[in-house]
Amino acid sequence: MEQFYQVLAWVSVFFYWLVIAGVTMRVVFKRRVVGVSLAWLMIIYIIPIGGVFAYLLVGELNLGRKRAERAKEMFQPFADWFQRLNDCPGHQPQQMSHQARPISDLCENRLGLPALCGNSMSLQDTPHEILRSIIEDIRNAEDSIHLEFYIWHPGGLADEVASALIIAAKRGVSVKLLLDAAGSNRFFRSYWPGLMAQAGIEIVEALAVSPLRMFLRRLDLRQHRKIVVIDNKIAYTGSMNLVDPEHFKTDAGVGQWIDVMVRLTGPCVSVLNCIQAWDWEVETGKRFLPELPTEEVSTATEKHEIIQVIPSGPGMPDELIHQVLLLSIYQAKESVVITTPYFVPSENLLHALESAAERGVRVDIVIPDKNDSVMVEWASRSFFTELLSAGVKIHRFHGGLLHTKSVVIDNNHCLIGTVNLDMRSLWLNFEVTLAVDNPEFTQQLSWLQQEYIANSTHISLSEWEKRPVYKKLGEQFFYMFSPLL
To answer: Which CATH number goes with the domain that contains 336?
Structure first.
């Protein structure tokens, strides 16, 4: 019997070695960023069984067989739709500035999606203004309303949006609502889905979380886009979820969430509607490609109102938003101002920011003083010393959880959308960003960023280096996992 247990022990050790060797080879052969691979190998070796289990759950970008096949089949029809935008009146590449042209070329070459001019934009920066504006446009809707959010949290003005949608549906407006299953978990447990379904609203849970399918699809892959499209004429996108901050995470100890949304009309509304249609088809298999924009554009008055819509996520070209962000920073000549709630940069992004500061570009990064993610907070701090030493200025915002995701380059070009500057947003989730070539809009966003900076504490290198040793150790510990956050 003793020999049997010895043999069993040796067989178990050998089997475990085979598992470790197999997973290690799989990590290496995926040829991802070196930091990501090293982080996973460290987890696999330090946590004997749990590390392998964790990698099988969330280590690879697995959309699930059905969704992956559907996305593959969809790509060509949607690419054809994007291609037809080149014949629309709003496609006038000769009007682009020198900052916008490389971004447009990148997006056209990788996705076939061109920049379009003739858009009208307004920046909305308070929850009351944003939600009231959405409610008013819903009340005036005549044909269709398409909404897509990561989080819908019942309460306050969010309930007024729900009521407005129900009323619109009852008067014959087609309403489609796509919500991330994990982010909107509380909404799906409320009475609102039932009321909406009774009114004829189509509601779909994106990326439903099911323990029974945990090995068939990556569980932490999330639908993070925020899009509202009304009658294919008005659209909203930006950082704000469908929540009233006075009723959302009030006990988290970080203050109210600070967000912005862009309300826009013009050719790019159809593009955002097409992205929402993409996500709808990935989940349901049902296709509804919107009509192409047909409005005539005056080159004399709309010269600079050019927007490049940039989607990213599984099924679309890898790292497209990440590439646009890097390209924008490397083009900067005078200033780069970034606001983001979660700052865990990739190696390439870190080097781009440092290089910009070292060549004389003023680089400002504004992040919240208090964060709702402890791991991200500690991992973020691990980059401060390197950035401050290169001349980057870091500001910690005190007015709440700064959730605005924005980048302003040289005060004449900007990026605004749903993307956090962390690996999850840049590499994993479904996201959307607008690259705006409009000096007037960019100036408005720049003024808002300066308001954030005025309500922030600037971190100096000398003071930062005086922090306690235990904090430095904590930062280095979470730094090792930063490629996975």
So the answer is: 3.30.870.10
